[in-house]
């Protein structure tokens, strides 16, 4: 589905990634992990062409997307739920969802089934939603593009426990439905039962890759600080 090979990415003269590798197979949920500032968001930004990789290769569904524009990459079926839940604040929930819609199995009805709480607020403007509801809307917007791969960057960060539970339940349902998912999150307890593979970054490099069950206390302490 997605293969990232030895990418190196920069912010101006400052190098953030020093040869990151990553693979997401069809139907897999891959957790991208690491402490703050280790390069998780930059890896995602590079996959989406937002901080294009200067070296290395990124393939998505057999196509080389390394040099493609962000717009073209999204069209190929990569759905992003960015850090900071960007929605059109003055549009209603429904309008936000319709704005990103592309043909496929995901439509308003299916989003309503996944997040009943959102359906109750269809006519409200996005700016009146709570942080958790905005996050559900951000996930809904990404799903409405009918992606082959859904990428979530810190989808549960800073949310109330009950809302976090709802979002983890939804992510679990998406995985059960066979959607391929790449996810950045620090909630180990929720991630561990869902993840097929963990990729840990440190200082812009791969530090460890393996099964969640292999992520020992020692590794957690060394790479995640937990
Ligand atoms: N816009 C930017 N301009 C310059 N440097 C940046 C920018 N964004 C990130 N960096 C730097 O790139 C490196 C990787 O940051 P990145 O945001 O990818 O880490 P992260 O693992 O996602 O961290 P967090 O968990 O805090 O989101 C850090 O050294 C960071 O300071």
Structure commentary:
The chain has two domains: 2-77 and 148-224, 3-Layer(aba) Sandwich (Rossmann fold), CATH 3.40.50.300; 87-147, no CATH class. The chain starts with a strand and ends with a helix. Helix content is 33%, strand content 27%. It has nine helices and ten strands. It has helices spanning 40-47, 70-75, 93-99, 108-114, 116-119, 131-144, 161-176, 188-191, 217-224; strands at 2-11, 14-24, 29-33, 55-60, 63-64, 78-81, 149-153, 180-184, 197-202, 205-210. It is α/β, with parallel strands linked by helices and 226 residues long. The model has no long low-confidence stretch (mean pLDDT 94). The strands form two sheets. A six-stranded mixed β-sheet has the order 6-7-8-3-9-10, sandwiched between helices. The protein has a four-stranded antiparallel β-sheet with strand order 2-1-4-5, covered by helices on one side. Adenosine-5'-triphosphate is lined by residues 11, 14, 16, 34, 36-42.
Show the helix and strand layout:
Elements: E1 2-11, E2 14-24, E3 29-33, H1 40-47, E4 55-60, E5 63-64, H2 70-75, E6 78-81, H3 93-99, H4 108-114, H5 116-119, H6 131-144, E7 149-153, H7 161-176, E8 180-184, H8 188-191, E9 197-202, E10 205-210, H9 217-224
- Helical/strand content category: alpha/beta
Order of helices and strands: EEEHEEHEHHHHEHEHEEH
Rg from C-alpha positions?
A: 17 Å
Point out poorly predicted stretches. Answer: none
Round the mean pLDDT to the nearest integer and report it: 94
Counting structural domains, the number is: 2
Widest sheet, order of strands: 6-7-8-3-9-10
CATH class of the largest domain: Alpha Beta
CATH homologous superfamily annotation of the largest domain: P-loop containing nucleotide triphosphate hydrolases
| Proportion in β-strands | 25-35%
Describe the sheet with the most strands.
Answer: 6 strands, mixed
Classify the helix fraction into a percent range: 25-40%
């Amino acid at each position: 589905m997605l293969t990232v090979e030895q990418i190196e990415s920069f912010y101006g003269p400052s190098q953030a990634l020093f040869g990151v590798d990553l693979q997401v197979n069809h139907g897999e949920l891959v957790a991208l992990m690491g402490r703050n500032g280790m390069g998780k968001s930059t890896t995602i930004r590079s996959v989406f062409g937002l901080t294009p990789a200067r070296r290395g290769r990124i393939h998505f569904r057999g196509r080389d997307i390394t040099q493609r524009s962000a717009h073209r990459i999204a069209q190929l079926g990569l759905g992003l739920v960015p850090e900071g839940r960007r929605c059109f604040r003055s549009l209603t929930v429904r309008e936000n969802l319709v704005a990103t819609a592309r043909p496929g199995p995901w439509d308003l009805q299916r989003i309503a089934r996944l997040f009943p709480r959102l359906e109750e607020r269809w006519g409200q403007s996005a700016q009146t939603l709570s942080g958790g509801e905005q996050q559900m809307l951000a996930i809904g917007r990404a799903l409405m593009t009918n992606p082959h791969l859904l990428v979530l960057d810190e989808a549960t960060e800073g949310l109330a426990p009950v809302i976090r539970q709802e979002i983890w339940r939804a992510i679990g349902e998406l995985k059960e439905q066979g959607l391929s998912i790449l996810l950045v999150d620090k909630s180990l307890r929720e991630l561990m039962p869902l993840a097929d593979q963990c990729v840990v970054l440190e200082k812009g490099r791969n530090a460890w890759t393996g099964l969640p069950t292999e992520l020992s206390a020692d590794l957690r302490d060394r790479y995640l600080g937990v």
